[in-house]
Amino acid sequence: MSDAATSSTKDRFMHGDLPFEDALKEVTGTELDRSHLWHILEGLASERSATAPVLSAHDAQILDKAGFVADPLAAASARVDRDIRMQNLVHASLSIPEAAERLGVTPARIRQILAEHKLWAFTSGRNRLLPPAQFTSAGQVPHLDQIVSLLEVDMHPLSVQALLTTPQQSLIVEGEPVSIVAWLTGCAGTEDDISQAADVITAAQWESA
Predict the structure, then answer these.
(1) Are 97 and 198 in contact (CB under 8 A)?
(2) Residue range(s) defining the domain that contains residue 195
(3) What torsion, rounded to 10 degrees, do the Cα atoms 90, 37, 13, 70 define?
(4) FRET label pair with 19: which of 9, 55, 150, 172, CA 20 to 30 Å apart?
(5) pTM of the entire structure?
(6) Is the C-alpha dihedral spanning 67, 86, 171, 178 positive or negative?
(7) Which of 138, 118, 139, 130 shows the shortest CA–CA distance to 93?
(8) Separation of first and last alpha carbons in the chain
(9) Is residue 139 part of a domain?
(10) How many domains does the chain divide into?
(11) How far is CA 97 from CA 89, 127, 129, 140, 206, in A?
């Protein structure tokens, strides 16, 4: 969004001419319905209670790296940002039938692959969803089935998506760091190639433990 467009949105919002959810969509490109906004409000309320931590360890680490202090406004901003990213991930992820169509197999086969820990899924409502980083336009990311089993089942979906798509300093192609997905897509699938990608996952989970 351009500076002029942002200023226009701000002016209309500050003057009461633009509802919050419409302003959110214009600024972030994400459309959240009232039920999801209420979920965010409930989360913010719980974080203000005496028994709830102000920030999760994950959010506190993000804020520390960004140079913020753990004050209530920072906590609220972290919560809203996380929920927006999670909503985007839910919308982008594949259902079991969609994953089956992508791989050219039956939904029953996808459930079997999940049980074999060769794909990773998370629960959203009553559905099991598969983060999009695991797939190409034609199927599964090459060789990914050999390292998915290293992902802990209770790992946060946003962490899984980031781990697979963020450039890693230990995975270098033509002098530049690449993500696990890019590494596996471009590699020959040798034992050493797979081991290098697996080491990134193992190291990341040790750091978060």
Answers:
(1) no
(2) 93-208
(3) -90
(4) 55
(5) 0.68
(6) negative
(7) 130
(8) 38
(9) yes
(10) 1
(11) 17, 11, 10, 14, 33
C-alpha 184/C-alpha 162 separation (Å) is 15
Q: Which phi and psi (to 5°) does residue 111 adopt? A: -60, -35
Percent helix, percent strand, percent coil in the chain, to nearest 5: 60, 10, 30
Cβ 156 vs Cβ 58: under 8 Å: yes
Dist CA 202 CA 209 (whole Å)? 11
Flag whether 7 is in a domain.
Answer: no
Q: What is the pLDDT of residue 61?
A: 58
**Mean pLDDT by groups of 10 residues along the chain of 209 residues:** 72 87 78 69 62 51 54 66 86 96 97 96 94 93 94 90 95 96 94 95 79
Residue 190 lies in a domain: yes
Q: What are the angstrom distances between the C-alpha of 8 and each of 24, 26, 37?
A: 13, 10, 23
Question: Which residues, other chains included, contact 102 with Cβ-Cβ below 8 Å and sequence gap of 6+?
Answer: 94, 135, 138, 139, 140
Tokens of 31: 């459309």
Phi-psi region of 187 (alpha: psi -120 to 50; beta: other; left: phi over 0): beta
